[in-house]
Structure formats: C-alpha cells, structure tokens
Design brief:
single chain, mainly beta, Immunoglobulin-like, six-stranded antiparallel sheet, five-stranded antiparallel sheet
Length: 251
C-alpha cells in the first residue's frame, strides 16, 4: 500500500548502481518514474520503480527518502509522496533485491519548482478610480508574465537564465520563446465569451523541463464611453484577478 510522506519533488537527476557481485555479468538497473513528471509545491506525486532486467513483481523493494526508510515489500513498485515548499531538495531511492541475489538501486533527486502566470490588458481603459481590473476584449493586447520559482540546490535560478516555451491553444510561439523570455505580448482575437488557453513550459539551461503552467483567458463584452472601449471586472482591485489557472502537461 502506498505510504505518504512530506517531501519536495521535481525530477532533476536519475542514476543507478549495481552490486559488485553481478555488475560484470548483467546490467540490471531500476529507474524511477514520476507522475506528474514536474510536481508542484504541496501536491501529491506518485513514484514508480521500473526495471527491464529484474521482475519487480517477484522482488522485494525498499524505498528510502533522504536516507530514511519509507516502505518495504514484495512488488511495492509505487509510492505516493506529498511535496512541500519550492526549493527543498530530497533524494528518493528504490532498492530491489531478487531471490537469486541480484540487487539494483535506482535514485531520483527532486527539487520542487513552480511557475505562476499573471496577465493584464494594458491597452484596455477602465473608468477613472474604478476598483477593478481591465479584462481582455477582442483585438486587445494581452501581456502574460511567467513568474518562476526554480531552484538548483538552495539557490533560486533567475528568470533570465531559464528557457521559456510559450503556446496558445496548442500552437507554439517560437518568436517569444527562448532564454529569459518570460513575457508573452499577444493580440487576442475572438468575441465575447471566447477563450484562449495560454501555456508556458520552463526548462533549465540544459533543456531539462522543470515546471509548466497554463491559464485560460476569457474575452469580456465591450462597453463604450466617449468613443473609448471599456472592459473591466466588477471586483475590488486587490482581490485575485478574474482568471482560471490550470495545471497541464507541457508540449
């Protein structure tokens, strides 16, 4: 039965070791797969041990986290963890010991990372002193900003050193993707009620994916005042912006 433990997780490194007794005969190895592959802070992540050389269904598997025992049992191939705050590292290890003496260990190092998306419609006008947020309307320019919380060890990596890959409704925006490009300015099309899904995937400089986020932007009906287009939210200016933020696989 899976066991929950407070941890922090985002795949960074995978490696394996083989006991000396069998290293020269075979190349047994255990790999650890995460679901989701880029866990966010304070969420559940499932780790699964896999091997092409050892039958894990007939093998005792021992799980440890940062050197501390978590779970032991035959065919215990999966374990569920709950991540903590961004930036705390840990090492998850699965050791398989077969009846024939074959032993293999797989390890995956985790750093919880995240990225938030905020957007604004800077060209849309709201009435003076109106306590609300300008919303997107057909033809308006929307500026989406990615705010990453990515760590290497105990050091936060600046956005200028990360790779950002943007897409809208599944279509890549290569011109606005690349190193340090955490801002996406785009002119949106569609009528009142139409939606566009904006997604960003963030990678380390070596192209290792570390975080992803998407948000859905819904167009509001236009209002006109003195020849100007007004689109705004009926909510206090300091409340959360009227947008829905989703987690989804990167492209």
């Amino acid at each position: 039965m899976p066991i929950k433990a407070l941890a922090c997780g985002l795949a960074a490194v995978t490696f394996w070791t083989i006991s000396p007794a069998v290293a020269t005969a075979q190349a047994e190895a255990v790999s650890i797969i995460l679901r989701p592959p880029t866990p966010e802070p304070f969420t559940e992540v499932t780790a699964e041990a896999r091997s092409f050389a050892i039958d894990l269904n007939q093998t005792e598997i021992v799980w440890t986290l940062n050197g501390e025992f978590l779970l032991r049992g035959v065919a215990e191939k999966t374990i569920t963890l709950r991540t903590g705050k961004a930036g705390t590292p840990f090492a998850l290890m699965a050791t398989a010991q077969g009846a024939d003496g074959v032993r293999a260990t797989g390890e995956k190092t985790f750093f919880v990372s995240s990225v938030d998306l905020l957007w604004e419609a800077p060209g849309v006008i709201v009435p003076a002193l109106f306590p609300g947020k300008a919303l997107a309307a057909a033809g308006s320019i929307v500026r989406v900003a990615a705010l990453p919380e990515i760590f290497s060890g105990n050091q936060k990596i600046p956005a200028r050193n990360l790779l950002f890959f943007w897409s809208i409704d599944g279509e890549r925006f290569g011109a606005y993707s690349g190193k340090g490009k955490n801002i996406l300015p785009v002119k949106m099309s569609g009528g009142a009620g139409a939606t566009h899904r904006v997604q960003v995937s963030v990678s380390l400089p070596d192209n290792t994916p570390v975080a992803e986020r998407s948000t859905t932007i819904r167009f509001q009906a236009k209002r006109f005042f003195a020849g100007r287009t007004l689109t705004f939210a009926q909510r206090p200016i300091f409340s959360p912006p009227p947008q829905k933020t989703l987690s989804s696989p990167g492209r």
